[in-house]
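Below is a filled-in request sheet from our internal design queue. Each sheet records the structural input a requester submitted and the sequence that came back. We keep these sheets so that new team members can see what a complete request looks like end to end.

REQUESTER: design group, bay 2
PRIORITY: normal
MODE: inverse folding
CHAIN LENGTH: 97
BACKBONE (tokenized):
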């Protein structure tokens, strides 16, 4: 089973599919590192978790703008993004067991 991180709105999701895939690949790449997963899991609130990705050295300015535009326009999208990342971490850790 693979967690999908998708922007809300089916039209927006299909229009931004390639940008979304590129962004999600970067998020997965970051989370594949046990050190990065541990650092992310230590964060206590949603804003810090989002800032972790926005300020990560792998994420350039263009990708940060993509992340903001696709997932962070409203509180519900932010929560869904963080929940999807948490699910992705669980999946990655289950694969490594």
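RETURNED SEQUENCE:
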């Amino acid at each position: 089973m693979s967690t999908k991180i998708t922007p809300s709105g089916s039209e927006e999701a299909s229009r931004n599919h390639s940008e979304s895939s590129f962004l999600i690949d970067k998020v997965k790449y970051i989370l594949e590192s046990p050190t990065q997963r541990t650092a992310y899991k230590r964060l206590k609130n949603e804003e810090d978790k989002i800032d972790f990705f926005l300020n990560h050295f792998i994420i350039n300015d263009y990708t940060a703008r993509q992340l903001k535009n696709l997932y962070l326009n409203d509180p519900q999208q932010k929560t869904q993004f963080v929940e999807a990342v948490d699910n992705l971490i669980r999946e990655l850790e289950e694969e490594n067991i």
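SHEET NOTES:
- The chain has a mean pLDDT of 84.
- The two ends are 15 Å apart (CA to CA).
FILED BY: M.R.
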